[in-house]
Amino acid sequence: MLFAIITFFFWLLTHRGRFGRHLFLLGQNPRAARYAALSVNGIPYVLYGLVGVASAVAALVMVSYFGSARSDLGRDLLMPALTAAVLGGANIYGGSGSILGTALAALLVGYLQQGLQMVGIPNQVSSALSGALLVVVVMGRSLSLHREWVRATWRRLFSHKTIGA
């Protein structure tokens, strides 16, 4: 329930408000955001504050689940979280993304990790599979963004005619 509430809040903030449009513009082109008279220096501080609050809520949930606090408690969640963000449509360089896509990808990656653990696969292997999924998604997105270059390279490599034919 808490996941749905936080997802809905950030969806409203980023996709239904002026702040979200400013945020995406700042991520796409900081110079254009400055020319549009946006607070280029202020928006990141607000965003860092919101991410800090969301991280504090996540830390409270983790500490209440495990019953103790350690500095490395979320270490194993870094790769699945990054995979979910990229799989959900977030651009590594900023300026694009979807909260709902990231939330659905987080559920998918979470169910994948839990399913692998239920089958008896060790955490190291499931982390490696999560990393492999991340590499496949990044490669797929890169190939889709550079489609013309891929086609030209493919034609150049495989369109050789045989000599004497």
From TrEMBL:
Positions of transmembrane segments: 45-66, 78-108, 128-146
Membrane-related topology note: Multi-pass membrane protein
Highest taxon of the lineage: Bacteria
A GO cellular component annotation in the UniProt record: plasma membrane
GO MF: transmembrane transporter activity
Pfam families: BPD_transp_2
Localization, UniProt: Cell inner membrane
Primary site of residence: membrane
Keyword match Transmembrane: yes
Keywords: Cell inner membrane, Cell membrane, Membrane, Transmembrane, Transmembrane helix, Transport
Known partners and oligomeric status: The complex is composed of two ATP-binding proteins (LsrA), two transmembrane proteins (LsrC and LsrD) and a solute-binding protein (LsrB).
Similarity annotation: Belongs to the binding-protein-dependent transport system permease family. AraH/RbsC subfamily.
Functional summary from the UniProt entry: Part of the ABC transporter complex LsrABCD involved in autoinducer 2 (AI-2) import. Probably responsible for the translocation of the substrate across the membrane.
Protein name: Autoinducer 2 import system permease protein LsrD
Origin organism lineage: Bacteria, Pseudomonadati, Pseudomonadota, Gammaproteobacteria, Enterobacterales
Encoding gene per record: lsrD_2
